[in-house]
Specification:
mainly alpha, 10 helices
Amino acid sequence: MPTDTPSAGRRIRWDRWLLALYVASVIVIAIQKGFFTPDNNFAIFRASFGNLVAGRDLYAPHPDQYLDLYKYSPTFAVLFAPIAILPLPLGILVWSAVNALLLYYAVRRLLPDEEGNRQATLALALMYFDVLRATQRAQSNSLVTALVILAFIALERRRQGAAALSMGVGALVKIFPLAAVPLAIFHPRRVRFAAIFVAVMAGLIALPLLFVPPHELLAQYASWRRLEAVDAVVRAGTTGAGVYGG
């Protein structure tokens, strides 16, 4: 017993230092991007809700607001609205925290026991610089990864509603979290999960109707589809950089 205590103490201290590093990085990035070097990706996200409610095409160029193009769903514009209305430094702080710290939380939840905790600490340490780069560019990669992990955890715990919501939100940020849907095949009550997932996706897709009429929302989705088609062609003919960043 006495020999185990120092090891446990060291592990706890490493956990705390790593969490402190993630938190400190979020704060430093918020100061840097909020006061000194604003990020174009965050400008794209921040302008999206205003463009949506004003009836502007989300997927058209808006050079007076930002460079590149908005590539996310109309629903993402609504989900980002609470962050968009915040003062710039605070908005960046919240967005950075949601991305980096939700991923930190998801990895900890994935590996919760004592041995898993050590593995989680190692995994989070190894991915730190990737998380840092994505957070500095205000990208959503960490958020989407966290949502996929949380969806898997929810399925393992038979929480189908939470799993469907994580997958649905992730898919409407970036499409690839839909690849997690087949995980439900290996769990009981698959038909029930399919019904829940369809209902959740329908609700999320229709969420912008709280702010825009149906014909405008349909036009936004049509414009998004055209942009994705153009991007697919560009990706097929290049190294995959696409027509827009973020």
